[in-house]
Amino acid sequence: MKLLSRNRVPLAQYRLSPNLLAVLALVTIAIWARPAKADTYSFGFSGGGMSGSGLLITSDTPVPGVPGAQQVIGVTGTFSDTVANFSGAITGVQATSLPSGINADGTFVPPGSPASGFGFSWDNLFYPAGNSPAVCPPPLPGDPNGPYPFGGGLLDIYGVLFNVQGGYTVDLWSNGVIPGIGLTYGVGDSKNGAVLNTFGEPFSGTSAAVSASATPEPASLLLLGTGIAGLLLAGGRKIRPAAVKHIAR
Fold this sequence. Notes:
It contains two helices and twelve strands, in the order E-H-E-E-E-E-E-E-E-E-E-E-H-E. The model is unreliable at 1-14, 30-36, 219-223 and 237-249 (pLDDT under 50). Strand 7 and strand 8 (168-178) form a beta hairpin. By secondary structure, it is an alpha+beta fold. The chain has two domains: 11-33 and 218-241; 38-214, no CATH class. Helix 1 (18-32) packs antiparallel against helix 2 (218-237). The protein starts with 13 loop residues before the first strand and ends in an 8-residue tail after the last strand. Strands 2, 3, 4, 5, 6, 7, 8, 9, 10 and 11 form a ten-stranded antiparallel β-sheet that branches. The longest helix is centred in the C-terminal third of the chain and has 20 residues, at 218-237.
């Protein structure tokens, strides 16, 4: 028995027009073709009177010696601190070099340090899989701080440092998974090198709430939207039977 369409035209006699085929190809490209340059993640965090949200832009280039890491190359959004009483637009990431002198165990000294005048150490590394390694090297002789062998989370212990309108800087980091406490995050802000507020310090038992999710590229969304619109138009006007034969009921 032949399968018949609603208007009694054999479905096997329908064909796709060249224009529709081109639209389908465009949609396929929009979904699967993507330049290997950067990823974008929407993020948000809050804790200790501080909160922020926006977009993290990361490089797709692997970070040598740090598996799973992506370098944050841009940050946009807004930030506020009700304790220090300021708020403003996030104006960008505070740039630093990639880690160097990485030890055999994967630990390294952060490329950005408080000596740079921003109040915090930082490395601007993001771990999309949420599996940041323990990167803090063993303490040197005479260092009053003990070892810190904890990793885990979207960031590492050094974190991402970004600038906020008004001359402020904010550091967002992960404390890793600490036995008896679990995974926690910290956040702090400063101005002119003086720390104004922090929340979620290691072993404090407190944590900033942090979330991040990948976002589609605007160019892909535009292509996909254009392709779907064209597909609907083509579906309404361009799909036609090769030979219309009405069959008597």
